[in-house]
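Researcher: Can you fold this with glutathione in place?
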Amino acid sequence: MIKLYGFGESRSFRCLWALEETGLPYEYITTKLRTEAGDPASAQHSDYRRLNVQGKVPTLLNEGLVLTESIAILYYIARCAPESGLLPNASMDVYARLDELSSFVLTELEQPLWSKGKHTFALPDEYRIPQMMETAKYEFQKATATLDRILPESEFAVADSFTLVDILLAQTFNWAIRFNFAVPARFLALRNRHYRRPAAQRALNLAG
Ligand SMILES: N[C@@H](CCC(=O)N[C@@H](CS)C(=O)NCC(=O)O)C(=O)O
């Protein structure tokens, strides 16, 4: 059975939500961030770091397979449950668009959010640059303005149905809200629309 190690509404939430969308059987293991390595539930514990060298979440295990990148885990879950439509049965062009948007989320949209996280709590004190916050706000504003131009004004990002890129977009805007970034009304609505899905609500309950 699939095991997913995760923490709260961090990037692991993408994967937890996807599992809930599919109905696949799985076990969710809360893995605490920023706790002492001696805590057996800590992402810094030596047992966990044997699975995930960086001591980060998420990690997915399934029958000897170990995956430690949220996007790879999302695609894997989607491929384990083709009937979920998280990866739609669609044309090459639709797939290419889905890949492009996934890449945009990871390389453009979430980077300023992660910059804020790194320079607020994740990096050692001596490597934090307070001025980074203004840069992060500027970069996020640029990324959302771009997305506003490239994302169609439809219910779903691609293929007229809910896919993994909708999870990625909604979870990333949720992250932006939690980190007090200025999220345009259109993307607040996107986040709210997709978070109303029963699978998202179940995942929120599990994530705690
Ligand atoms: N590229 C990885 C990044 C994973 C990552 O950085 N996870 C964060 C939580 S969102 C983490 O575990 N950070 C460790 C910490 O903050 O101590 C992915 O997308 O899965």
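Model: Folded with glutathione in place. The domain at 92-203 is CATH 1.20.1050.10 (Glutathione S-transferase Yfyf (Class Pi); Chain A, domain 2).
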